[in-house]
UniProtKB/TrEMBL annotation:
One of its GO terms (molecular function) is oxidoreductase activity. It comes from Actinoallomurus iriomotensis. The keyword Oxidoreductase applies. It comes from the Bacteria. SUPFAM superfamilies: NAD(P)-binding Rossmann-fold domains (SSF51735). Pfam families: adh_short_C2. Keywords: Oxidoreductase. The keyword Oxidoreductase applies. This is 3-ketoacyl-ACP reductase. Belongs to the short-chain dehydrogenases/reductases (SDR) family. InterPro entries: NAD(P)-bd_dom_sf, Sc_DH/Rdtase_CS, SDR_fam.
Length: 252
């Protein structure tokens, strides 16, 4: 089987698929033969969807919205074989002493509760051989003094994934996560630019610093994250569940 045919016939739902890593996942999956639905906020409609892909509005903070969007997707696609939970948000830097707890709740509602809601309402729609892959982060296994809410939410994602793998395994459904390191998306570049006053680094310098912190001396790409998710969605990973694969160039 070639990479171009890796996901032929797969019907996939991608939350947060309008931008960033989620959008790259949609393009890579389409190139590998999958069709599916992109679920994202009404304010962030995807553009230039590949053939065979559709869009539906969802707010992962709203359980009814998640339930309805997944049911709509299952009806449109005549079933769901894979779910990619990529919806997420990165908050602005805040030291713990300055933590805005209302913002903390917002971040966890999207990054953790949203993943739990997605898996909860996808589970009844999935059959043997289906997969769920959540986009976690290197912050799922390490802390960060500036974004405690993000680290907490991504730690929670790993716990949800491991628990869901145990719950859904008897039904033949596999649940895994990927943990990207810094990925040079537009959003990351914007955050690096906004932090220049604090870090003293412009975007190019910040990206170079991130690259030098890896074994490969470069940061991973969104395409490499998408390819790892494709592996976890395909039959090539049929014996893999309850795992998190780091895609970070070898950050220690």
């Amino acid at each position: 089987m070639t990479a171009a045919a890796l996901l032929t016939g797969r019907r996939v739902v991608v939350t947060g698929g309008a931008n960033g890593i989620g959008a790259v996942v949609v393009r890579r999956f389409a190139a590998m033969g999958a069709r599916g639905t992109v679920l994202d906020l009404p304010s962030a409609p995807p553009s230039d969807l590949p053939p065979g892909w559709h869009a539906a509005a969802v707010d992962v903070r709203d359980e009814d919205s998640v339930r309805a969007a997944l049911a709509e997707s299952a009806a449109l696609l005549e079933g769901i074989d894979g779910v990619v939970a990529a919806a997420g948000v990165v908050p602005s830097w805040q030291r713990l002493a300055d933590l805005d707890l209302a913002d903390f709740d917002r971040v966890l509602a999207i990054n953790a509760r949203g993943v739990a809601a997605t898996i909860k309402h996808a589970a009844p729609l999935l059959g043997t051989g289906s997969t769920v892959t959540a986009v976690a982060s290197l912050n799922a296994w390490r802390g960060d003094p500036n974004i405690a809410s993000y680290a907490a939410g991504k730690h929670a994602v790993l716990g949800i994934v491991r628990s869901a793998a145990l719950a859904l395994g008897p039904d033949g459904v596999r649940v895994n996560a990927v943990a990207p390191g810094p990925i040079a998306t537009d959003a990351l570049r914007s955050r690096m630019a906004s932090r220049r006053e604090t870090t003293g680094l412009d975007v190019a310098e910040a990206l170079d610093q991130a690259a030098r912190a890896t074994a490969l001396r470069r940061i991973a790409t969104a395409e490499e994250v998408a390819d790892t998710i494709a592996f976890l969605t395909s039959d090539l990973s049929s014996g893999v569940t309850g795992q998190m694969i780091n895609v970070d160039g070898g950050i220690q």
